[in-house]
Specification:
Radius of gyration: 22 Å
Low-confidence stretches: 1-25, 30-36
Mean pLDDT: 85
Helix content: over 70%
Structural class: mainly alpha
Strand content: under 5%
């Protein structure tokens, strides 16, 4: 996942400064144009804030609305492509990114979006993509490196390159990329979250929790930091505090299927089977294509000896996606 630094509303600031200095904004068509530009700048700022807090669905809706008013807005379209990539709407994301690059080959954010698209294709349930994992990750790294060449000070590009390096098992380079992103923007909480993920995967749960805590302090509305904190607490066997963190994550992103599924795991660890089943079901309802909810519920049923129910859940998963097979953990 990536976050966005909100754009500065330059047109709004310009309008306010002119009025402060005693100038009067023009009337008629010119005034309508300026008001329209100011409105777009405000909407971009709100959409970028949604990206910053991981509310990608909200951001997608806002960028789409902006493009309906201003179809040639490449900043909105490149941002839209990145939001869609984070939402795993990969074909739409790629289409929008390439539309931007057709007009502006040096648009760094569009290259970032293509890098995320290529990497996220490796998580596809379609074996056609999963069989090309190494090729796709190399493509992702290439796009993100290109973005950095075009815009060396873009923290999002360094952060996403770090994620791709992590998928490739290049942990030292991943850490360096996250540190570079954090150096470019000391308030870039996402880089700390990603650094914590590496610490978590290496078994250093305490260090991971410290990284997540720092990220939460920087940006308390970043649902991913709370989600990862809950995951770490669950790993330690602290289901009670994990549920608290995960509920905070869910309050920040109310339709997030992975958070619901992780809550189900926490309730299962706590021994609250009915709550676990309910949350797996909520995850499926929120996102019927989120396969881990089906497999998690199947494992729960199988663990308590309900083999027929477990098989029914796996069949449901296959009905949703006939090509489904458990994906390898990156």
């Amino acid at each position: 996942m990536t976050t966005f630094k909100p754009v500065r509303p330059f047109l709004l600031a310009l309008g306010l400064s002119l009025m402060t200095m005693g100038f009067v904004l023009p009337e008629g068509e010119a005034a309508t144009t300026i008001r329209g530009n100011i409105s777009v700048a405000r909407e971009m700022r709100v959409a970028d804030q949604d990206m910053q807090t991981g509310k990608f669905a909200n951001a997608e809706s806002r960028y789409t609305a902006i493009l309906q008013k201003s179809p040639g807005n490449t900043a909105a379209r490149s941002a839209l492509s990145l939001a869609q990539a984070e939402l795993y709407k990969l074909d739409a994301a790629e289409k929008n990114a390439r539309q931007v690059l057709a007009k502006d080959p040096n648009n760094a954010m569009a290259h970032v979006a293509l890098g995320v698209v290529a990497r996220n294709r490796t998580a596809s349930m379609d074996m056609t993509y999963r069989s090309k994992r190494e090729q796709l990750l190399n493509e992702s790294a290439s796009e993100l490196q290109r973005a950095i060449q075009l815009s060396p000070n873009l923290p999002e590009a360094h952060n996403e390159l770090g994620v791709t390096y992590r998928f490739q098992g290049r942990m030292q380079e991943a850490n360096a990329a996250f540190e570079k992103a954090a150096k470019l923007d000391p308030q870039f909480a996402e880089a700390l979250v990603n650094k914590g993920i590496i610490q978590y995967e290496s078994g250093n749960i305490g260090a991971a929790k410290d990284s997540y805590a720092r990220a939460i302090k920087m940006n308390s509305k970043n649902y991913m930091a709370h989600y990862r904190m809950g995951e770490a607490l669950l790993k330690e066997g602290n289901a009670h505090q994990a549920i608290t963190s995960l509920n905070t994550a869910l309050s920040l992103d109310q339709n997030n299927a992975p958070v619901m599924a992780k809550l189900a795991e926490a309730y299962e660890q706590q021994g609250n089977v009915s709550a676990a089943i309910a949350n797996y079901r909520k995850a499926m309802h929120s996102n019927p294509t989120f396969m881990p909810a089906y497999s998690g519920l199947a494992n729960l049923y199988d663990g308590r000896g309900d083999g027929e129910l477990a098989m029914a859940e796996l069949k449901s998963a296959l009905n949703v996606n006939p090509k489904y097979a458990p994906a390898p953990t990156p």
